[in-house]
Specification:
heterodimer; A: alpha/beta; 24% strand; globular; B: 12 helices
């Protein structure tokens, strides 16, 4: 009696195991490594492309440093979209990306972000050096905006004055937005597009940085070297930069690159 | 994959030393605070009957079910720009983006676990001993100190170790409340996360190994001490 029960159980477990195996072998799946700040347009682009082409796309969102690091560890993706061009260029140099597939999509514009109403009347980068001001920035080693903020302030000879005011270096631009929306910092430097998100709507205000001082970045999309001959991956890369794709980018507060 | 030499080099880096020291110091302070609170709370929940006890117990256990990030958000809202936050700031205490915030984050993450263990411990101790002690002239407080606490020795030890391990391993709460800033509020789990986001896998793996080693040491000491009790 006990043995027959055990046999039934074993057969049942085997069936489950094979079911599990067969579910792994399914339709084609594409992988995107994307900067965390591009989450909103990427999710919309992903869903549109999935519907049209009957594929599943998994997107890994992380800071630009993180997704770059994942490729350095030998992890592969089909499409790579960091928060700034520098990461794509470095990845091409390391032989991870297929250079001819690079398409510049949109501009990534740094702005000063303050809590709604701008209670401390911040007008320019110089104001961030005001003694006693609580500034929140992104970690320069982690997120693209962190690197840009440090360079930007360095270029204006403000880094040494602003650094003592920095109360927190957040790992991603998303976390930085939350801190501004929760009124935990007097001023931050973040991407313009991030401030259009619902999380910050009505809670934050943007102040433009003087164009002569600003460092506007470009977001490129590119194919991983392992995906260059995969027609579906090529199609996805092209779709992200297509006019239909651009409409999604613009909807989320991005400005198209004049190609 | 990082080699053994890489791990050894990473262990000696300034960042790793800072992170380990901060983790151990904040972990110890938080664990002591957790035990100071969980002993009376656990005892009260086990021995006292009062209206709304079910609600109180549920509230005490809630953070166990929360993702740590939610707890971090709740704490930043509590200690941020609120009357409570302002009152604390006026006496020079700031929990947002500071090392004190690390302690607070760890405290609230580990407290419910310690309370649960202490409550079960007191549930298993027969109240008869306490009645006898009271009938022989001890006050309730003296009974708690001289009878209940010594009987709860093993439970106190278990709760302390679990609290310490939870404090050392707390990530999401620390990340949100204390900001997870490099070399400022960087505990071991934050080091792991930051180095993943820097694309520095060697350091990330080393901090992971270090976390395992610290937890192993804590639990091993607990097992050894429990045998002796």
């Amino acid at each position: 009696m006990y043995k027959s029960k055990l046999r039934v159980l074993t057969i049942f477990m085997f069936c489950l195991f094979f079911l599990g195996l067969t579910s792994v072998v399914k339709a084609e799946e594409l992988r995107i490594f994307s900067g965390a700040g591009l989450m909103k347009p990427m999710e919309e682009l992903r869903q549109n492309f999935e519907k049209k082409n009957n594929v599943t796309i998994s997107v890994h969102y992380g800071s630009s440093g993180e997704i770059f690091g994942m490729m350095s560890m030998g992890q592969t993706c089909d499409v790579f979209i960091p928060g700034a061009e520098k990461y794509t260029n470095d990845a091409v140099k390391n032989g991870w990306l297929y250079k001819p597939s690079i398409i510049k999509i949109v501009k990534h514009i740094p702005v000063i972000v303050v809590p709604a109403g701008n209670p401390l009347n911040i007008k320019s980068l110089d104001d961030l050096a005001r003694p006693g001001l609580k500034v929140a920035l992104c970690d320069p080693k982690s997120a693209a905006i962190g690197k840009v903020s440090k360079k930007l302030l360095g270029k204006c000879k403000l880094w040494k004055k602003v650094e003592p005011n920095v109360v927190v270096f957040a790992p991603t631009c998303n976390q930085l937005l939350i801190y501004t929306a929760l009124d935990q910092a007097d001023a931050t430097i973040n991407w313009l597009d991030v401030t259009t998100w619902a999380e910050g709507r009505g809670k934050v205000q943007t102040i433009k940085i003087d164009p002569a001082r600003n460092m506007i970045k470009t977001i490129p999309t590119a194919l991983h070297i392992s995906a260059k001959d995969n027609p579906l991956a090529v199609k996805l890369n092209d779709y992200i930069a297509s006019s239909e794709g651009m409409a999604v980018w613009e909807k989320w507060g991005f400005e198209a690159c004049t190609r | 994959m990082p080699t053994f030499e890489d791990v050894w080099m990473n262990l000696q880096s300034e960042e790793m030393r800072f992170s380990l020291t901060l983790s151990l110091i904040t972990g110890l302070i938080s664990s002591v605070l957790v035990m100071l609170f969980s002993l009376p709370i656990g005892f009260a929940l086990s021995r006292l009957r009062f209206p709304g006890k079910g609600i109180v117990r549920t509230i005490m256990d809630l953070p166990i079910a929360f993702p740590e990030l939610v707890l971090g958000l709740c704490l930043i809202l509590l200690f941020g720009k609120t009357p409570i936050g302002a009152a604390l700031k006026s006496i020079g205490i700031n929990f947002v983006f500071t090392q004190e915030g690390v302690v607070v984050a760890q405290f609230f993450t580990a407290l419910p676990y310690a309370i649960r263990i202490m409550k079960s411990t007191f549930d298993f101790i027969s109240p008869r001993m306490e009645f006898i002690s009271r009938s022989l002239g001890y006050t309730q407080f003296e009974t708690f100190i001289k009878v209940s606490l010594p009987l709860a020795g093993k439970g106190i030890l278990a709760a302390s170790v679990i609290a310490f391990a939870r404090c050392i391993g707390t990530f999401g709460t620390v990340l949100i409340l204390a900001g997870g800033s490099y070399m400022k509020t960087e505990t071991l789990p934050v080091t792991l996360y930051l180095n993943i986001s820097y694309g520095n896998m060697g350091m990330a793996l080393t901090s992971g190994l270090l976390l395992v080693a610290v937890s192993f040491a804590a639990i091993f000491v607990f097992e050894m001490t429990e045998v002796k009790l």
